[in-house]
Amino acid sequence: MIGRIKLLLLLCIFGTTLSLRIPFNKSQSACADISITTDATGAYTVLSDYGITIDDSENIKIKLRIKASHDAEILLMSTDSINDPLYKIILGGSDNTVSMIQDGQNGKIKAVYYGLVLENGFTKFMITLKNDKIKVKDGDKNKILKWKDNKNPLKVVNVGIATKDSKSGVWLFPCNQEPNPSPSPATCTDNDISCDNGEGCYPSKWKCDNIKDCDDNSDEENCEGKYI
C-alpha cells in the first residue's frame, strides 16, 4: 500500500539530468531541490506520483540526501507496484549498524555493509544501476554496497522510498543530478586501493571480482588465476 507523504517543497526545473527527471515549470527560472517527508508507518512512497521519473532504465543514477536515524529503504521497481519484482536497498538497518541489498521485497540478501551510514542531519548517497549492477556510494563517492544480478535482471522503471521503525525521514532530491567528482586517492581509506587513473578507489576485497569498479578497469587487471 502506498503511504501518504507530505510534500514540503516542489519547485520544478527544466530538463533531464542523467536518468532522473525532475518536473518542469517554464515559469521557474531557478533550480531548487525537492524535499519529501516519509512518516513512521513504513509505507512506501513512489516518486513518479510526484513527477520524479526515470528516463534511462539502462543507466540509472540517483543523487539524494537522507535525514533519518535508521532504516531508510529505497526500492528499485520493475513496475509501479511494490508487489512486483524489485530490488530493495536498506540504509542504516538494525539501528544504523548494517546496510544491504535484497533481491525482492522480502528476498535474499545479496550484499551487506556493516557500519554506520546515516549521520546527524542529512547524509548524501548516490545509487546507480548499470549493466545489471547496483552500486551505492556515500557522499565521498566511497562504495558501500554493490551487487550484480546475473540471473534475472530487472528493468527498473520507478523508485519507492520509506522509513521503517523510525520517527520519520526527510528525503532531498537535488535539482542537479550530475554526479560529484570521483574522490582523489587521498580520500581513500587504508584498506582501499586507488584506481590507476587516480579517479576513485575501491575496497581491496573487490579486486578481481569480475565486476568493473574503476572507469579505467584497473580493478580487474592482472587477475590471472583469480576468477573462479
Question: What would you say this structure looks like, in words?
Answer:
The chain is mostly beta strands and 228 residues long. The protein has two domains: 168 residues, Jelly Rolls; 36 residues, Low-density Lipoprotein Receptor (Irregular), CATH 4.10.400.10. 2% of the residues lie in helices and 39% in strands. The protein contains one helix and 18 strands. The strands form four sheets. It has a seven-stranded antiparallel sheet, with no helix packed on it. The chain has a six-stranded antiparallel sheet with strand order 5-15-8-9-10-11. The longest helix has 4 residues. The radius of gyration is 18 Å and the shape is globular. 29% of the residues are buried. The N terminus is likely disordered.
How would you sum up this structure in a few lines?
By secondary structure, the chain is an all-beta fold. The chain has one helix and 18 strands.
The tally of helices reads 1
Distance from N terminus to C terminus (CA atoms, Å) equals 42 Å
Can you tell me the number of structural domains? 2
Any low-confidence stretches, pLDDT <50, length ≥5?
1-18, 24-29, 179-184
The level-1 CATH class of the largest domain: Mainly Beta
Count of strand segments: 18
Helix content: under 10%
**SSE ordering:** EEEEEEEEEHEEEEEEEEE
**Largest beta sheet: what is the strand line-up?**
1-4-16-7-12-13-14
Structural class: mainly beta
**For the residues shown, what is the average pLDDT?**
80
CATH architecture grouping of the largest domain: Sandwich
- Looking at the structure, what is the overall shape? globular
Q: What is the fold named in CATH at topology level of the largest domain?
A: Jelly Rolls
Computed Rg: 18 Å
Note the main sheet. 7 strands, antiparallel
